[in-house]
Design a protein that fits this description.
Elements lengths: L2 H30 L3 H4 L5 H7 L1 H4 L9 H10 L2 E8 L24 E11 L9 E12 L14 E5 L2 E14 L3 E11 L15 E3 L7 E15 L8 E8 L12 E6 L11 H8 L16 H10 L4 E7 L11 E2 L2 E2 L10 H4 E12 L9 E11 L4 H6 L7 E9 L4 E8 L11 E6 L3 E2 L5 E9 L9 E6 L2 H5 L3 H7 L1 E2 L4 H11 L4 H9 L11 H11 L1 E7 L10 E10 L2 E2 L10 H9 L10 E10 L8 E9 L4 E9 L16 E11 L12 E7 L12 E5 L8 H35 L9 H17 L23 H36 L13 H28 L7 H18 L3 H10 L8 H20 L22 H30 L1
Parallel strand pairs: 19-22
Antiparallel strand pairs: 1-2, 1-10, 2-3, 3-5, 4-5, 5-6, 6-8, 7-8, 8-9, 9-10, 11-14, 11-21, 12-13, 14-15, 15-16, 16-17, 17-18, 18-20, 20-21, 23-24, 23-31, 24-25, 24-26, 26-27, 27-28, 28-29, 29-30, 30-31
Helix pairs in contact: 16-18, 16-22, 17-18, 19-20, 19-21, 21-23, 22-23
């Protein structure tokens, strides 16, 4: 009896052990996968020592600990270095360009190489060498990125138009000598030119690329890579040199000519500021001009934080003496050597910009007598066609790079640096550039740069032309990347307010329209004068980023323009105020105490950054605006400045205003907030030059009407429109019922005229009342929306809307029943007419011919409307997803037209029957016509309701079917039909009198 429980316990124990083993086993396998032996087997170590013997013989004793060895794996890796191949007959890889034969643009075709350390053998850290392995990614690309990592530990090659990439795994040894660090590898590659190779001895080694399984590529394990690293990371010792060569004979089809690699140490290496002598020669006595900027002090810690933020920023070139677009050829930009490929460029400053990478900064007054901080960076010339993501990560040094190091002077806010072009290994002989960076603490209409810089020669030997560059501060930069710096160090100085006030008075005409606007319309304004958050919200309201059209339209197909107006400052507030960020009480009180001009209805000082895109506006694509905003009228009166084209001379960095055209006036008119429930907000912009027509800087007046400007919260307008439209429908239906009742009373008195009322006319009206009840659709008119605004209606109807909906359905049903009553009376009257002898049957009214004639006209009209709709779809004015939906939409919309033209059958019947009586009462047909006109006019005036969270500008098509001009034509036809009926019935009365 005791054996059975014991057996149960043993089975349970076995089950638990099995279950525990199932959990432990995968974990053990996972942990073992991280062992070095699973990443690199180091099977070729003896071969590596034989081939690399010449380098290993000079190795010194290593002094590596675990932490340094771990950091070394990151410090020795690099990304997007440069490579060139020795001139010969055996290229490394093929490349298929994705551009035409005539395409040529400097900097767009790149030869890039990346190297990643995958494993370091930590078990041999105290020997002369350490085993390491990694993979090399080398390729040719036109603005496309290379692989970030290898999919597996296997060689691969792939290519497609615009990119070719070869990935090679390597294993080897790391050593250190007195002057450098070195790694020597042997790797296994695939030969990109070995497709179709049919040597039977080589076929077992054939390797098939995943990208080209149909084209086997042969492996080549005779690839040697040597990488040399400097011991210290400094201005003139930062370059990584590499050499990759094939150990096969030249006659071997796998052979390729020697490849030279260059890169530099990066983020994981500690930069050493050891170039004091070069900096003293370049910056002492301080040659940079310090009278460019207003007073103020930026602390050393603030400077280093700001300087780090400049990483990967693009700087505009504003002047290069001898390279202003007027001289040919121009191959250089200051110290940067661009090469012969720029002969085809026109306006070289527009084709290139400067990027700053790899910034290092150390604050502290004890670092140098010249300043309170030390900084270093690499400046690179970047083509306008180059991929910015690639440019940001490039690490190669060449003739288009400038390595710089210098000191920051906190009292003058100037950074003076010495620069070395290219590989920077020739000491002082290759460092003949002085970089001066100025950091203003106040902005104005002529000074919108967060910093400006110059690059000049230190001495006349091997001198180069002066190069000027800058970083213009745009409002998004103030809100995001430089928020802390802007809120604590920057301010705005208004200098054109007096001129803007003169412009305002010149355009201020007090009339009835102005009085009505001030009295009944509300425009964007400051809600709370004592709250800087209100100023920030107003800045958001006055900013827009949308498309527009010239006003008036110059032709049938005017070019679309893209307009951006970004508010930089409003009153004393620069940028925006974020309540969730730290904001000093001192700054807040400063804004509030200077807010006298921000009282409701008072004029506000304003500055903005304005851009205008389009072929016709290249000369005025960027404007710096400053002036006054009138919140009572929603108008901004502004003075504008623009940079003079570089073709007319380089900018004088010491006097930016001398190179700017500030004789420009601009006016921006905003739409009313009061009518936003009906009309979406837009803006009207006018820009004029105050120069003489003969002046070369004169331009014709510009006037633009923008499209919809999305705003953040339209819930109030949305609810108001819903309630208004429900009430409007109730009013129209009630009036329609009244008109029908009037006709019924009229028929009681004019019994002889009843048979001459067209049943087709009544039949056209009836579906408009009953179909919405059957299909649960919109009554009288649809909700006007954009394509992606459906979710605004998904929240469900409120109680009041449900009550309104019930009332509407009751009124619509009542109108339908009364219309049926009209039809019943007409039918009975005609039957009675048939039974009353002696009546000629030909004189009895019949709707057969009236029905055929009416629908013939409508079929022709539908075909015309359908073709117009197809043209709109082709032009992108409206969008549909299926052919069937196009037909359904066209039929649905045209049915609304049929109901609008309800008098057409009555006009046709009056002509066919030669009616001598007055069948319709004026109040009936004129009243219904006015109601249809009212509905059509409202539908034409109202804009589609936008969804601020999903609205995508031009890509979001609206549900609008008829344009405003087409609605005007429809309303004109409605009036004409009513006039014709009135004339016909007037003639009937005259004939009866006679």
């Amino acid at each position: 009896m005791d054996i059975l429980p014991l057996a149960h316990h043993l089975m349970a124990l076995a089950f638990l052990m099995l279950l525990l083993g199932s959990f432990i086993s995968p974990s053990s396998d996972f942990e073992s996968s991280d062992e070095p032996s699973n990443i690199c087997n180091y099977e070729r170590l003896s071969e590596v020592k034989r081939e690399c013997n010449s380098f290993l013989s000079s190795a010194s004793k290593l002094k590596l600990d675990i932490e340094r060895a771990y950091r070394m794996s990151y410090a020795l890796s690099f990304r997007y270095g440069d490579w060139v191949q020795e001139a010969g007959t055996s290229p490394l890889m093929p490349f298929e360009d994705d551009m035409g034969k005539n395409f040529s643009d400097s900097g767009s075709l790149l030869k890039l190489v990346s190297f990643s350390i995958m494993d370091v053998d930590f078990s041999h850290l105290h020997e002369d060498e350490v085993r390491v392995c990694g993979y090399l990614s080398i390729g040719i690309t036109r603005n496309r990125t290379l692989s970030n990592h290898a999919d597996d530990w296997s060689p691969s090659f792939w290519k497609e138009p615009g990119i070719s990439e070869l990935i090679i795994p390597f294993e080897g040894l790391y050593i250190e000598t007195e002057g450098e660090r070195l790694m020597c590898f042997l790797g296994t590659s695939v030969s990109p030119f070995s497709e179709g190779f049919s040597d039977p001895l080589e076929l077992p080694m054939a390797y098939s690329s995943d990208f080209y399984p149909q084209s086997p590529l042969l492996q080549d394990d005779r690839v040697m890579l040597v990488l040399r690293y400097p011991q210290t990371f400094a201005l003139t010792s930062r370059v990584i040199h590499g050499e990759m060569r094939n150990l096969n004979q030249n006659s071997n089809p796998k052979y390729f000519d020697k490849v030279y690699i260059s890169s530099q140490l990066g983020y994981y290496s500690n930069y050493q500021f050891v170039s004091e002598k070069l900096i003293l020669e370049a910056c002492y006595p301080y040659p940079c001009q310090d009278g460019l900027i207003d007073g103020g002090i930026i602390k050393d810690s603030q400077f280093c934080k700001f300087f780090q933020r400049l990483s990967a920023e693009m700087f505009d070139i504003v002047g290069s003496s001898g390279c202003d677009g007027t001289e040919e050829p121009c191959y250089n930009l200051g110290p940067f050597v661009l090469g012969n490929e720029v002969k085809r460029t026109n306006g070289i400053q527009d084709k290139f910009r400067i990027m700053m990478n790899d910034p290092h900064c150390i604050p502290g007054d004890k670092l140098s007598k010249l300043g309170s901080a030390k900084a270093s960076a690499v400046f690179r010339v970047v083509s306008s066609q180059e991929n910015l993501f690639i440019a940001e990560q490039r690490s190669g040094l060449s003739r288009i790079t400038l390595s710089a190091e210098g000191t920051w002077n906190f009292s003058s806010r100037l950074l003076c640096m010495v620069g070395c072009v290219g590989l920077a290994e020739t000491g002082s002989d290759g460092c003949n550039s002085r970089i001066c960076l100025y950091f203003p603490i106040s902005l104005s209409i002529t000074q919108r740069s967060i910093f400006v810089g110059t690059i000049s020669s230190i001495n006349n030997t091997d001198s180069h032309n002066l190069l000027s560059f800058r970083k213009v501060l745009r409002p998004p930069d103030v809100l995001n990347k430089y928020y802390d710096y802007s809120s604590s160090c920057l301010s705005y100085k208004y200098s054109k307010i007096q001129s803007a006030n003169i412009l305002l008075k010149r355009n201020e005409n007090f009339n009835l329209v102005t009085f009505m606007k001030k009295s009944f319309l509300k425009y964007p304004c400051v809600e709370d004068t004592n709250n800087i958050t209100s100023l920030s919200q107003l800045s958001d309201e006055l900013s827009f980023d949308t498309s527009g059209l010239p006003n008036p339209l110059p032709n049938a197909h005017p070019p679309k323009v893209y307009v951006t107006m970004e508010i930089l400052s409003l009153g004393s507030l620069l940028g925006r105020h974020w309540s969730f960020r730290d904001f000093s009480h001192k700054e807040e009180s400063k804004i509030l105490t200077n807010s006298d001009s921000t009282k409701r209805g008072q004029l506000l000082n304003i500055s903005a950054h304005f851009t205008l895109s389009g072929e016709s506006y290249v000369h005025i694509s960027v404007l710096y605006l400053e002036g006054l905003y009138n919140p009572l009228l929603g108008k901004a009166f502004l003075i504008g400045c623009r940079d003079i084209p570089l073709s007319q001379g380089p900018m004088n960095i010491t006097n930016p205003e001398s190179r700017m055209d500030c004789l420009i006036e601009a006016k921006v008119e905003y739409s009313s907030k009061t009518t936003r429930w009906l009309i979406n907000p837009t803006a009207r912009i006018s820009i004029t030059s105050q120069r003489d027509v003969e002046d070369t800087l004169y331009f014709s007046p510009i006037s633009i009407q923008t499209f919809l400007i999305p705003y953040s919260d339209n819930s109030k307008e949305f609810i108001f429109r819903q309630n208004f439209e429900e009430s409007f429908r109730m009013l129209v239906l009630s009036a329609s019922i009244a008109c029908i009742l009037c006709q019924l009373f009229f028929m009681e008195k004019k019994v002889d005229a009843i048979p001459f009322i067209s049943l087709t006319m009544l039949g056209v009206q009836a579906p408009g009342y009953v179909l919405p009840l059957v299909t649960d659709g919109a009554i009288l008119f649809k909700w006007k929306k954009f394509q992606y605004s459906d979710n605004l209606l998904d929240s469900g109807k409120t109680m009041w809307l449900q009550v309104f909906d019930c009332i509407l359905k009751f009124l619509s049903l009542t109108a339908f029943v009364l219309t049926l009553r009209l039809c019943q009376k007409v039918t009975k009257a005609r039957l009675k007419l048939c039974t009353s002898p002696p009546r000629n049957l030909r004189q009895i009214p019949s709707d057969k011919l009236v029905f055929l004639s009416s629908w013939t006209v409508h079929i022709v009209g539908f075909v015309a409307v359908h073709f117009i709709h197809l043209k709109k779809t082709a032009d992108g004015i409206i969008s549909t997803h299926h052919k069937l939906s196009e037909w359904v939409t066209d039929i649905d919309e045209y049915m609304g037209l049929v109901q609008d033209f309800f008098l057409l059958p009555q006009i046709i019947s009056n002509v066919l029957w030669q009616t001598q009586v007055k069948p319709l009462r004026e109040l009936y047909y004129i009243g219904l016509t006015l109601l249809r006109l009212l509905v059509r006019a409202y539908d034409s005036i109202r804009d589609p309701v936008l969804n601020p969270y999903l609205h995508k500008g031009d890509n979001n098509r609206s549900s609008v079917f008829f344009s405003k001009s087409e609605d005007i034509i429809i309303m004109t036809i409605l009036v004409v039909l009513a006039v014709i009926v009135h004339v016909q019935q007037g003639n009937f009365n005259k004939s009866l009198v006679k």
